[in-house]
Each structure stands twice: as structure tokens, then as C-alpha cells.
Write a structure and sequence with these properties.
- The chain is an alpha+beta fold and 177 residues long.
- Helices cover 42% and strands 17% of the residues.
- It has a domain of 97 residues.
- Strands 3-2-1-4 form a 4-stranded mixed sheet, covered by helices on one side.
- It is flat, with a radius of gyration of 18 Å.
- The two termini are 18 Å apart.
């Protein structure tokens, strides 16, 4: 279905987890995240039915722009290299994380934290893609971003995770974006 209904690839974490945790009576618990998924899927299907599917949405081509991003406890940032007529324009961005996020970060001083550095890296990659959309028209274009976090690369290539935590919601946000 992820090929047929674009944008759904990042929505399957929740459904995968629901199926994994079925009770002995073979029923799926319809938790709030499952309900969110069930609302997103038809919304994307209706959006697809309202307009033609562009070939650039289905078949990636050579990237038109490149960039890199990074994130750590204090914040996230990146650079885009946007080709223009005669030159390449670098666009730099940076954003601090809110204090409540930095306080929840897992560290030696806070081993019981609820946010990992990989979570921040995934959030930074989604912000990077959003910044691209703000800077240039990415419609029917392939973009490329470099990361230094293996978990982020894996989650984005797979489009899902086996937990219902922050990563599942970030992948959902990315899929809808």
C-alpha cells in the first residue's frame, strides 16, 4: 500500500506494533495511536484521489539539491546547497531545542530520560526537509540529505519502527509532510 498511496510508508509503525501485541483472542487493541493511523490512511487516499500522481513522486531521480544536518542536546541545524543559474546557494539554518526536551535527553547524568540523541537526529532530518520545502519548490524533485546517525537513516529507509514512542510519531509526521 505504501507504493499505491504515497505518504503512508511512515505510518506503519503503529499498525505493526498493534499486530505484534494482539491478545490470545486475536483482537487488535485500538489505542489512540492506532486510531491516529486509521484517520491518516483514508485522508492520504482521498488527497491522492483529488489530484494526479506525478511521476516524480513515484520514481526518484538524480537529486536536484544536497545538504547535511545534525542534532545534539542543544539543538539542530543544517545546510542546503541549492543550485541556481550560475552558482550554488548555501542556506544555513539552526534551531535550539526547548528546555523540556533537553532535560528529557538520556545522558550519563540522566539515564532515565525519555528522549535519545537518535530521536533528536530524526527530528533534525524532518526539520531539514521542511526547510528545503520553504526554500525551493521540491515538487516532483528528489532531494538528498547526509546524516551521521545510523538509526535515523535506518528508520527513514524502512519507514517504520517497532515501538509506539516518539520515533513512530516522527515518522508519521514525516510521512504526512
Amino acid at each position: 500500500m505504501a507504493i499505491a498511496i504515497l505518504g503512508t510508508r511512515g505510518l506503519f509503525s503503529t499498525l505493526q506494533e498493534a499486530f505484534r501485541n494482539t491478545a490470545d483472542n486475536h483482537r487488535i487493541k485500538l489505542s489512540r495511536p492506532v486510531h491516529d493511523f486509521l484517520r491518516d490512511f483514508p485522508w492520504l487516499a482521498l488527497d491522492l484521489a483529488r489530484r494526479p500522481t506525478r511521476i516524480g513522486e513515484v520514481i526518484p531521480v538524480t537529486p536536484c539539491t544536497h545538504g547535511a544536518c545534525d542534532a545534539a542536546g542543544s539543538g539542530m541545524g543544517g545546510v542546503h546547497f541549492i543550485p541556481s543559474r550560475n552558482k550554488i546557494l548555501p542556506i544555513l539554518w539552526r534551531q535550539q531545542f526547548p528546555t523540556n526536551m533537553t532535560k528529557a535527553l538520556v545522558s550519563f547524568a540522566n539515564p532515565r530520560g525519555t528522549i535519545t540523541n537518535s530521536d533528536l537526529e530524526l527530528e533534525g532530518s524532518i526539520a531539514q526537509a521542511d526547510m528545503w520545502c520553504q526554500a525551493v519548490d521540491v515538487q516532483e524533485r528528489t532531494i538528498h540529505n547526509c546524516y551521521d546517525n545510523i538509526a535515523t537513516v535506518h528508520w527513514q529507509q524502512k519507514g517504520s519502527t517497532t515501538t509506539l514512542g516518539l520515533v513512530a510519531y516522527l515518522l508519521r509526521l514525516q510521512a504526512i509532510h
